[in-house]
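Notebook entry, structure prediction.
Reason for the run: the old model in the group folder had no record of what sequence produced it. Starting over properly, with the input documented here first.
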Amino acid sequence: MKFSKILIFKIFFILVISPLFLNIPKANSAEEIKITYSIFSRTIKVASLKTFATEGKSTKKLRRILKATGSPDKEIRTVLKKDFEVPITIASKLVYSEIGDVFLTRLSSIIHPPRATDERTGMLALRASVIQGINIGNGKINLINFFEAYPTKTVILDVSALSKVMNKVESISELLTFFTNSPLEKIKTN
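New structure, fully documented this time:
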């Protein structure tokens, strides 16, 4: 009888009391995207981006940022809402494969946590975001789910690093097609 009371107290302490005293941080999801270009930066809320993608409504700040892209709103909304159906088991294999490591290493220079001093931290955040994003989307992922699943309050989007990558490919859709179709077919057959 005493043993079970002690065991219950230990479990209660570990689950309820210790996080209060040990200040164990809670994993957050991204609330804002900080877009940086050289020394300039702008911050947009993930919620306002989601509202724009789903309803077409945008805040004044978001309109200014979208206007700077030079792309029509409809095209941007399409990109934000485009779902990629990826089984979570295949996504997990992909993000831990050699090609996944290469892709995530390059992507971690473009999208990363605010105080990431190494590419490994960025890679871990990207892996978590992909897996959790697929979970949020019930087997599908889009950019909104990706950002909602990002494990830090702020996501840094480095436009300079993105421009360097974009100079190497003709279009973002070509890049997305390559990375979502080619490796997945190889993983599905293995």
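Summary: The first strand starts at residue 32 and ends at 37.
The old model has been moved to the deprecated folder.
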